[in-house]
């Protein structure tokens, strides 16, 4: 499944008021971080992740690694902020158009 333009627009609007709950620093992405992000996505469905300036990896590569590891969709990469969405199995709050 892939997100349509309409669904991405809907999710971007929902993510507008969110604050980043994870930060990727100079150590980059690791398995523990991906596990925690997966758990957060299960609870919230939509999260923001901030890529710090001291991160050695490119923000697009970071977003791909996190999305692939947590089986989530990249909604948006704006500046150094990544917005991810994954449909929750137990805590479904967001209904996509």
UniProtKB/TrEMBL annotation:
A Pfam cross-reference name: CRS1_YhbY
SMART domains: CRS1_YhbY
Swiss-Prot/TrEMBL keywords: RNA-binding
Keyword Membrane: no
Domain CRM: start-end pairs: 1-97
InterPro entries: RNA-binding_CRM, RNA-binding_domain, RNA-binding_YhbY, YhbY-like_sf
GO molecular function ontology, one term from the record: RNA binding
PROSITE patterns registered for this protein in UniProt: CRM
Name used for this protein in its record: RNA-binding protein
Species in which this protein is naturally found: Gracilibacillus orientalis
